[in-house]
Amino acid sequence: AFILIDPVSNATVAAGMVRSEQQEDGRVGIVRRVDAAARAAHLGHRAGMVCVRGGSRDVRQQVVVGLEAGLFQRGVQALAWPDDAGVPLADGASLLMRAGMIVLVSEDQGALPTPEAGEATGARFALTLELVDGEPAPDRGGDGLQISLQQGVDRAIRAGLLALRDRELFGSRRTVDPGGGI
């Protein structure tokens, strides 16, 4: 670990920690396959899939794209599945989850991966956000949540982001690891 102190003001201006040894030729000392836990720790979030149901196709797409933008702003690797992806959703989403991403889809975009495929990637497999016109049912913390469209799409997107955070699919990303005395 190291601490950089300004010699004039005596203020701490930086701190850091060397976490792995790298050889001069660029090779890392220990080579092993990156697993889901290591990927989640590095990215600051777990992989998973969010499926948006209900409402019109246009509204679902707005919510999916809004969730993608909101997650991106929070440093989360997420992708709103494009209609022109060129590969079946089940195959592409499984691969993206294996890479540690959160995949956002609308219910009409194709067959979803099986729960077994999601679990094999180490993903928090799926959360279904159901858009409703009236009052939503109480949130019971499971894999499904109703979100009201009564107050508009932007409010529905914020509710979706809160639901993902509350279910610990992502959290606040640490930028500095706690260290001895830092």
In a few lines, what is going on in this structure?
The chain has 182 residues and is an alpha/beta fold. Helix content is 30%, strand content 21%.
Please tell me about this protein's structure.
This protein has 182 residues and is an alpha/beta fold. The chain is 30% helix and 21% strand. The protein has 5 helices and 7 strands, in the order ββαβαβαβαββα. The strands form 2 sheets. A 5-stranded parallel β-sheet has the order 4-5-3-6-7, with helices on both faces. It has a two-stranded antiparallel sheet with strand order 1-2. Strand 1 and strand 2 form a beta hairpin. Helix 2 packs across helix 5.
Key structural traits:
globular
Which regions have little confidence, pLDDT < 50, spanning 5+ residues?
173-182
Number of helices: 5
- Return the average pLDDT rounded to an integer: 80
* Strand residue content: 15-25%
**H and E string:** EEHEHEHEHEEH
Q: How would you write the strand order of the largest sheet?
A: 4-5-3-6-7
**Major sheet:** 5 strands, parallel
User: Structural class, from helix and strand content?
Assistant: alpha/beta
Shape: globular
- CA radius of gyration is 20 Å
Q: Considering DSSP H and I runs of 4 or more, what fraction of the residues is helical?
A: 25-40%
Q: Roughly how many Å apart are the termini? A: 9 Å
Number of strands: 7
